[in-house]
Structures are given as structure tokens and as C-alpha cells.
């Protein structure tokens, strides 16, 4: 067995092109670029006006079975597929989210692909990149500071300090900030109250950046953010604090997508970073629209499993962006199937009964995606230790479900290792598409949740606790009943219990809280004990990272 170099070693040896050469491939003139060094550039949104009459290319959505601690390769597949389509002569642009430094220094390390299917410059992208996430963090916290200052300075809006819903944000995993008390130390330091931090990827402002079409749309959405309620129960908006202009000023550059490249020089646009377990889980609609207007194929990734990222893309983001996929790629791995079959030694041990059990998770996701009326292909992310009989069992399932399947070797072979998948995607993109979201916006909030819970998760019923019940009735009364829903739950299971792997037996989905994202335009439905601020593990990825006196980073991937 050939031992490959590490991802970062491969990236350092790569022939990275000046970003002007990549923009030339996309058809973006340099007059639309704002350069961030030699290999990164922001794209001015005015490009959309010059391309608005262009026919849209095909949108391909990459998703996966429920994740495991080992990673399934969605980003790798997104990048590798883009490279493969480029090898076949198709003008292709990849669109991805920006990595959050929380997971980068936490469990997963970097999030720019791997092997010979990577985005470059990977070190920059995984760290500060062009500062977009920091800008979202700054805007979020300015709004929090303005709110607390208003309360301290007379509280003309009669804000109920026991009904403030806007927390603070930081782009790092820090469980100590989940519940805090602010305003201590005397009257000059504010009004004491309980509060919390969320990770920046969970900020409504992150979603607003991803869902805004231009600066004016951004300002309108920012002004509609609900930050608190007054003593009569009326919502207090960011616009009531007259802060939307300042927020938009901070975000003016963050609204512009970022142009980079793959290791094989396929153009990639990276923009926005919402998580799929607690937010919408996809990159910005402006990045996607730029790719659709300029390329034959736009390849987009939805975070975590198809029950989260893909569901939200198809029910929420597609509506907001007015686009839908020509094909959906479902990424699976033998080791993930073993994990969902209950095997602990997932690499070296094969148990046919357990593998069959784990395959049910794959089957459920295939069935779920078919509900939306989109063509589906299964991509097997191949590892050297995978057994032939396991690959054949996956192929047998796909044959039974009447979906095509491709063996992917994109990690070791780059675009060449994704040609089989690319050929299938080309064929699927020619098929009739009957895409339709699962629910109508006019459905009751409870009905929307029940449709997702029963059809996508496999729940037998949904239990709404008293607090979310009251909130739902309030949001309906305020005129927000027709918003789509964004369910926040564990990514590790189809259920709201991370320990229920595979396909759980019929279960109750417990709705523990509901939040109004009136700026972004959806209702957040919190299930189980999911929280919006992750914590570091006992052995976080950060302990493996270092930098030498020449500035060379190691351990990032």
C-alpha cells in the first residue's frame, strides 16, 4: 500500500495559479475583483447585473448519509466532482462554505477537502481567510452592545430584560460561554442579566449574509432581526435601535463572495459558513447565482447528512434563491455504514449482518431525497481498506432502489478518480426534474415540523413542550406563520438522540424550543438537547498544530 503525503504536504507542493488566471477561466474580468494577495479575491456583486440574461447552468447538490466522527468526504467529493467535470470539458465552478475556526481547532481540523481534491490556499481558507466570519461576529456583537446600551440609557423602547433573545457570538468552541451573567460590577457596566454566547456560524446574521441578494436586501433583513420583546409582548427589531446601517457597513465586504481554486485549478467560490445542524447549512445564494450564470455546472455542498443540510437546502434555500438541483449526490463510505451498523472496529472488521443494518441508513436517505423529485446518485468514497464484498453490497442496494452508483477515488486521484461519478451526473442533468419542496409555506408551523419529522426522520410523532407551543402561537399572531422551518438537532442521528444510529425504530421527536429568525426569514425549531455553542473535546485538533520560524504550518489537516 502506497502511503500518501498529508493533505498539507500535498497542498504545499501544488502549483497554485495567480487568481487572475482563475478568474479568466470563469469569465470574471479583473474589474470585478478585489485582490486579497496573489491567490484570493473577492467578487463584486455587480457581476450579477452583467450576467443576469445568461442561461443558468446545472446545479448539483452534494450531501451524505448521517455523519460519523470519522468524516464521510462531502467536501472532498464536491471538489473532486468539480475537477472531474472540468476534465470532461465542462465549465465548472464549485461553491462551498467557509470553515469555522471552532471545528478547525476542535474535532475535524481543516475543511478544505483532502488528498488531491483540495481547495487552495488551504491554510488561509481554514483560518482567517478574508475576514468574513470575523465581520459577522463583529456585526452580531455590535447589535448586542447597542441593545444593552439602549437598556442602560433609559430604555425608551420599554424592553423587557427578561425577554431578550439576542445573545453574543464568537467563532470558537467554548462551552464555558453557553450560559453567562453580564452587566456585573456596578451601574456603569450595564444592567445585570443572564445571557449566552453562540458560535458565529449559528448567528442569524450569518444566515442573512448567505440569503441576501445585494446590500439593500441585506439592510432590510438586518433591520428585521428580532432582538427582544417589550413589556407588552411586542417584538423589538434591530431597526428600532437604528443600527441596521452600521451593521451593513461592517458587512459590506463580507457580502462579496471569495474566489479561489482547487488543486487542479478548477474555480471555487467560498462564501458564508452556517452549520447545518443549527442553521441552513449551505453557502450564499449570491455565490451560487454567480456560479450558475457563469458555468455549465455549479457544484454545491450541504452540511452534515441529507436529513439536515439537503432538507434545508431543498425546503428553505431553494425557495430563497429561486433555484433547485439538476441532480443530488449522496456520499457514503463503508466505514460509516459499519458505524451505523453498530461496529466499533469499523476499519478492520467485517460483519455482514451489521453492514446490512448500517445500509438501512443509506437506504433511508435515498428514499428521502426521492421525495423531492430530484435525480439521485450514490457516490462511494473509496478507502484502501474497504472490502470488495462491502462495495458490492452497496451496489446491490442501489440496484434495488433504482439509483445509479459510482466508485470514487478522488482523494488519491483527484478529478480523474471522479470521472465515473461525473459521467453519471451529466446523464442525470438531462433527465426530467420534478422538484418540489415537502411542505407549503401556508401550512401551520406544527405541520411543517411534523412533515419533516415523519417523512425525513422517521418519527412516529412530534411532542411540542409548553414553552415552544406558546412561542409558536405568538409567532403566528405576529404574522410569521408562513415562514419555512429550520430544525436544529443532532447531526449524528436521524432522530434527536445522537445515540440512536442507523435507522432508529419509531421515536418521538421532542421540540424543546422555538426561535424567530425574522431577519433571515425562517423559524428555528430546536429539538432534543442540541445547543448553539459547541465545546472542545478532550483531544482537540488544536494540540496537533504548530508553526515554525519560517511560517510553515503543520498539523492543520
Helix proportion range: 25-40%
Helix-and-strand structural type: alpha/beta
How many beta strands in the DSSP annotation?
A: 25
Task: Label the CATH architecture of the largest domain.
Answer: 3-Layer(aba) Sandwich
CATH class of the largest domain: Alpha Beta
Biggest beta sheet summary? 12 strands, mixed
Description:
By secondary structure, this protein is of the alpha/beta class. It has three domains: 37-129 and 254-428, P-loop containing nucleotide triphosphate hydrolases (Rossmann fold); 133-251, 2-Layer Sandwich (Domain 2, N(10)-formyltetrahydrofolate synthetase); 445-527, Formyltetrahydrofolate synthetase, domain 3, CATH 3.10.410.10. Helix content is 35%, strand content 19%. It has 19 helices and 25 strands. Strands 1, 2, 3, 4, 5, 6, 14, 15, 16, 17, 18 and 19 form a twelve-stranded mixed beta sheet that branches. A four-stranded mixed beta sheet has the order 20-22-23-21. It has a three-stranded antiparallel beta sheet with strand order 7-12-13, covered by helices on one side. Strand 1 (33-35) and strand 2 form a beta hairpin. Helix 7 (132-152) packs across helix 8, helix 9 (215-223) packs across helix 10 and helix 14 (352-370) packs parallel to helix 15 (388-401). The protein is globular. The two termini are 21 Å apart. The mean pLDDT is 95.
